Amino acid sequence: MSRAIFPQDFLWGSASAAYQVEGAHLADGKGLSIWDQWVQLPGKTYKGSNGNTATDHYRRYRQDIALMKEMGLKAYRFSIAWPRIFPQGKGAVNAAGLAFYAQLIDKLRANDIEPVVTLYHWDLPLALQEEYGGWESRQILRDFLNYAKTCFQAFSAQVKYWIVLNEPNIFTQLGYQLALHPPGKTDLRAYLQTYHHTALAHAAVVKLFKEDRYPGYIGSSIAFTPAYAASDKEEDTRALENYYATNCWWLMDIYHRGEYPDLGVAYYTQAGAMPRVLPEDKELLQAARLTDFIGINYYQTAMIAANPSNGVSLGSMNTNGQKGNQGNGVAGLYKTVTNPRVEYTDWGWAIDPDGLRYGMLQLHHRYSLPVFISENGLGAYDKVEGGQIHDPYRINFVRQHIQACHQAIQAGVDLLGYCTWSFTDLFSWLNGYAKRYGFVFIDFEAQLQRIKKDSFYWYQQVIASNGANCIQGE
Ligand code: BG6
Fold first, then answer.
1. What is d(CA 386, CA 101) in angstroms, rounded to the nearest whole number?
2. Does residue 88 contact residue 125 with C-beta atoms inside 8 Å?
3. Taking the CB of residue 326, how many other CB atoms lie within 10 A of it?
4. Known catalytic residue at 167
5. Which of the chain's termini has less CB crowding within 10 Å, N or C?
6. 114 flagged as catalytic
């Protein structure tokens, strides 16, 4: 095998999301989002934390971009806050909102950083949730399409990479089945119907993008958790099939093939939870095949075992940073178990770089599309020691995942880019500010001061060597 390094135009990037960094939640005519409301409800977020100020990126973006430039970052993935553009979700455009993102994009371009723009990273305008139930209603298609078109018209001359939706599987499942995100429902059917609407929205936006001939590339990013069977026993390999049919392939086939996998349809029909698919949906979903790339957010793998019909069900998530992996599953289908071959983070996430290689190959074989890794990173506790942050654990984590990317490329995957999560530390939806992901430390106790971590200087070398410093000694 050749030891060639990464493609010359490889997008070495890092990512964020509007609500998690911007702050300025009421500034310059912005409307409220469902998260602005959710964080005010007692007990919904870690120790009542919120993104009202976050890292104040809205006001300090120039400083953050200067740090990106110093690092040599090739791509910065960020999201547009829909309620900054349309404070009520629709109707009158807020010119100040458009102006903010125009300046951000200009500044990135002026510093040779490719903007990768996510249209939706969970901060739905509250007005749409209140008017018709947000994503649970098909009415959202019209408003989302109008918002997307407004963004394309405003920014497409400067933006080549678009991500329509971030992790539609997470915001719908946590919002509609597990009650951990707004609107806090516990209804499997509502989750699946809402997810179906996101797939329609993705297809409609991709169709518009292609029909109106905007230049560039478009896709969506799914949280992808590849999995292994816990043993070679038939019951465990069947459980693995169930997992893929109701999870990974369920989520991705509808986005990339325009249909759900048969085994998943059989299960959800029997469970009385199959989403309502209208005849016209099928036609629209065919447009999903025009998607240019598969975006994935990869953090971990799962190990899957059989689960009897009176077995465990989907449980709570580890939001407290105390080690200990909580198994959960779907009774009668599968359950997750601890993988003895990997280490776990303090939040119970499996650290499994090879799972990224394996997962990308699965995607390559199933969909034959380029892949874009829009998030990958390690959430950890960091300590400031003498004004420095030594984070060898993060360097190791990212290095091993970059090696996995290299191996996937060598095996035939067309990988467009790799974004770490995240550039600066930021607000975590369920873990507040204690769980840190950034190359740049934010001192939340001291005026949001920015401090470069060891990993900052290390990733700088990764980019300068086009990945070669990770591959040596692989
Ligand atoms: C992804 C999201 O789910 O993972 C990010 O797209 C999120 O917004 C990231 O912050 C890490 O999750 P967490 O729960 O550790 O903050």
1. 36
2. yes
3. 12
4. yes
5. N
6. no
